[in-house]
Amino acid sequence: MTPTRGRRRRPRSGWSPGDKQAWQERKDRDKAIANDAVVKAARALSERPNLIDAFREYAARVQAHRTLRNALALLGQNPAATRVKSAFFWAKEDRAVLPTAEPMCIVARRRGGKKVEEFDNPETGQPEEVDAGTWTGFTSERVFDVRDTTPKNRPCDHCGTHPGLRCPDSCPVYEPVRGTAPTRDEVLELLDQVLKDDVGFYPANLDGGEGE
Fold first, then answer.
1. Closest CA relative to residue 184, chosen from 1, 63, 51, 40
2. Which DSSP helix (H) or strand (E) runs through 18?
3. What angle do CA 36, 65, 10 make, to 5 degrees?
4. Higher per-residue pLDDT: 47 or 130
5. What is the rounded radius of gyration, in angstroms, for the C-alpha atoms of the chain?
6. Nearest partner of 35 among 72, 83, 85, judged by Cα
7. What span, in angstroms and rounded, lies between the C-alpha atoms of 68 and 78?
8. CA–CA separation, 62 vs 179, rounded Å?
9. Integer Cα distance of 118 and 128 in angstroms
């Protein structure tokens, strides 16, 4: 039988009703920011279809495990972003988000009824977590570009910059990590969907004809 180390206490378990309401209001505001950014970027690309291929390359850098719609949301908030993660995942790379950093908002899938147990894996001897929750909907998430981070607990693995200090522009940590670019058809389909659902009409066909 796998030895357990006890169930981890949920971060919001001790919050007051007021704390929970304020948190939910913040999540709703962030979701609205993300949705507004999606529409803003979709309008811009529909008006300047010559930039669609540039957006495809942008999405290849920032999309990672996120949806193409979230790549559109990031474009509407920070067109210069290269590597994007939440503060939690930056910490896993031993990088801290600057206190003055402006977050970008995206919409992520949410697990409900989350039950997390931590145990020592008998094969590796390392602690691991098991999440027994199920996907129940969507929630907002705050993410940050790599240029809004500094080394956290030790010097930068790439350039040796000390914790709390910005790495120089030449540091390899800033180099984009390119994933798979979406196809042009995937982008066009998303733009049509966004402008129909959120604005109420189809744009003119971006290849020169008229939309429906």
1. 51
2. helix 17-47
3. 85
4. 47
5. 20
6. 72
7. 15
8. 8
9. 6
Average pLDDT, rounded, for the chain? 83
Amino acid occupying residue 77 = Q
DSSP H or E segment with residue 57 = helix 52-62
Contact 111, 10 (CB under 8 A): no
pTM: 0.77
| Beta carbons of 131 and 144 less than 8 angstroms apart | no
How does DSSP assign 96-107, residue by residue? EE-TTPPPEEEE
Query: Are 49 and 167 spatial neighbours (Cβ–Cβ below 8 Å)?
Result: no
Give the span between the Cα atoms of 71 and 34, in whole angstroms. Answer: 10
Side-chain-side CA neighbours of 9 within 13 Å: the count stands at: 5
Q: Residue 46: what are its φ and ψ, rounded to 5°? A: -70, -30
pLDDT by residue (tens digit) across 2-17? 444 544 445 566 788 8
As a residue count, the chain comes to: 212
Phi, psi of 141 (to 5 degrees): -140, 140
Bridge partners for 96 per DSSP: 150
- Model confidence pLDDT, tens digit, residues 104-123: 999 987 655 555 555 555 55
Question: Is the distance from CB of 140 to CB of 34 less than 8 angstroms?
Answer: yes
